[in-house]
Amino acid sequence: MDNFRDSYFNITWDLTKKHLIGTFGSRACWGKQYDTGRGFVVTIVEGDQVTVPSTETVRLKWEKPDRTEGYVTAVVVDGKFFIENIDQMFTVLGAVRADLEIWRGGKVISSATFYVSVEKALAVDAIESSSQFTALQEALADVSDMQAQVDAV
User: 124 Cβ partners below 8 Å, 6+ apart?
Assistant: First the structure.
């Protein structure tokens, strides 16, 4: 598997209703700072009719806590809208405001706002843990043994 599409958040957007329905339930979508494999799979519904992508354009727009904004246009894969390459959404810690928009025939509809919670990444600049301290202790013991042998001569 060369991507994380199976782990993307699923969103069903019924254009006739206010709230989005998704795998994130009633809480916000989430990710860690600097995540690069997050995404959304969006199914558009109008009443009880699923929209099969044809000429529509779907975008995810966001505003990060530092007030910088961005958007990504979905790609269509297997009859669904996939929103990928949202790395910039995850650069700032906090609640990111987001919404979807669909363009059809020169007209646009926007979804209700939802939130993506960006959690602090741990150990971003950390040094990889290793057994170097143990190796240092062993080397010092070896030097001590050698010194004892030299002293004995």
Answer: 33, 34
DSSP string, 12-63: EEETTSSS-EETTTTSPEEEETT--S--EEEEEEETTEEPPPSS-EEEEEEE
Q: What is the pTM of this model?
A: 0.74
Contact 21, 14 (CB under 8 A): yes
Tell me the two tokens of residue 99.
Answer: 């919404």
- Asked if 118 and 89 count as a contact pair (C-beta separation under 8 A), the reply is yes
Beta carbons within 10 angstroms of residue 72's beta carbon: 19
Rounded Cα gap, residues 114 and 30, in angstroms: 11
Q: How far is CA 21 from CA 9, 11, 44, 84, 88, in A?
A: 11, 6, 11, 19, 24
Rounded-to-integer distance, Cα 3 and Cα 129, Å? 28
Residue range 24-63, pLDDT digits in tens: 554 568 888 888 888 899 999 998 899 888 899 999 999 9
